[in-house]
Amino acid sequence: MIVRLLGEGQFRVDDSLIGRLNELDAEVERAVAAGDERALWSGLQALADAVREHGVKLADDDLSPSDAVIPPEDLSLEEAQELLQNEGFIPDVPSVS
Amino acid sequence: MPGLMARLSLIFKAKFSKALDRAENPNETLDYSYEEQLRQLQNVKRGIADVTTAKKRLELQYTSMQQQVDKLDGQARDSLKANREDLAREALSRKAAVQGQLDGIMQQGQQLEAQQQKLIEGERTLQAKVEAFRTQKEVIKAQYSAAEAQVRIGEAATGIGEQMADVGLAVQRAKDKTEQLQARANAIDELTASGALTDLTSSGDDIDRQLAQISQGGQVDDELAKMKAELGAGDAPKAIEGEEAK
């Protein structure tokens, strides 16, 4: 599975890590719901650390798309809420046609 | 509701599958897509240049704030030398206020520095991917049927689009952060310029002016003393001579 850490790049990780990533993802979601920015940051950092520790960085010229995308570690609570509420957080990308 | 990671992945997939659906004539699409990537790459470079410029401006502002801190420190010393502890206290409390703001801004400035480094790396990766796409599109044109080409284009374009969105988001966040810092630095500049910090800390009178008065007062005293000494130098020896003469 390929995971992108936003702002950092793509990593190839073993599929066995998916369960752990989903658990951490759920923690992050609870932190946002509780309005707890500290817990949000520690959750995001745990996610990123897990990927860095168990993953291998993809070559710069690899064009593979990612299976999962992880937000930046310093995401603010405000940004996280924006991200969960609408798609505006991610800028538009050039279309193919 | 899915978590942030899951939500982000969905957003990315939705964005790129739309792009995929529109690919009809593979060869034209490939060339157009490449041109579009080059254009976007230029935008990203411009965005990074903007962030760099704004960061330099901020650094100049730190310097002027640091000078302000140093000046207040000097004023405090001068005040103490002139036995004006009240003024020294005033200068030091202003110094503490400016220093506190400055520390906060410097700390965020360091985060910005780290973000800027990542931006540069992200741009390098994007450049490498766009270059890889240029090569790959020729291979796709030469070797694949229309249907196969479509799938390949979809994947390659998604890979590039992701990187583009990633760097684009990073540029946007760095810009926002720079603007926030700029606003904070400007607010402090205005405060120190208008003397509003004085009101926050203590009484109204400007330290500079009072110190100038003290030093002017000091000059007057010095000159007076000098004059007295000169005049006295004329009188006193006479008196002594006079006494000796008797």
Question: Can you put this structure into words, describing what you see?
Answer:
The complex is a heterodimer of chains A (97) and B (246). Chain A is of the alpha+beta class. Chain A contains three helices and four strands, in the order ββααββα. Chain A has a four-stranded mixed β-sheet, covered by helices on one side. The radius of gyration of chain A is 14 Å and the shape is globular. The termini of chain A are far apart. Chain B has 246 residues and is mostly helical. In chain B, 92% of the residues lie in helices and 0% in strands. The longest helix of chain B is centred in the middle third of the chain and has 59 residues, at 85-143. Chain B starts with a helix and ends with a helix. Classes of the chains: A alpha+beta (97), B mainly alpha (246).
Question: Which descriptors would you attach to this protein?
Answer:
heterodimer; A: alpha+beta; 45% helix; B: 246 residues; mainly alpha; 6 helices
What percent strand of chain B? under 5%
- In terms of quaternary structure, the protein is heterodimer
Rg of chain A (C-alpha, Å): 14 Å
The helical percent of chain A reads 40-55%
Report the major sheet of chain B: none
Q: Encode the helix/strand succession of chain B as letters.
A: HHHHHH
Give the topology string of chain A: H per helix, E per strand.
EEHHEEH
State the end-to-end CA separation of chain A. Answer: 28 Å
* Structural category of chain A: alpha+beta
Beta-strand residue fraction of chain A: 5-15%
Largest sheet of chain A: 4 strands, mixed
Strand order of the largest sheet of chain A: 3-2-1-4
Question: Measured on Cα atoms, how large is the radius of gyration of chain B?
Answer: 35 Å
The N- to C-terminal Cα distance of chain B equals 114 Å
- Total number of helices of chain B: 6
pLDDT averaged over residues of chain A? 87
Shape of chain B: rod-shaped
Q: What shape does the CA trace of chain A take?
A: globular
Uncertain runs of chain A with pLDDT below 50, 5 residues or more? 93-97
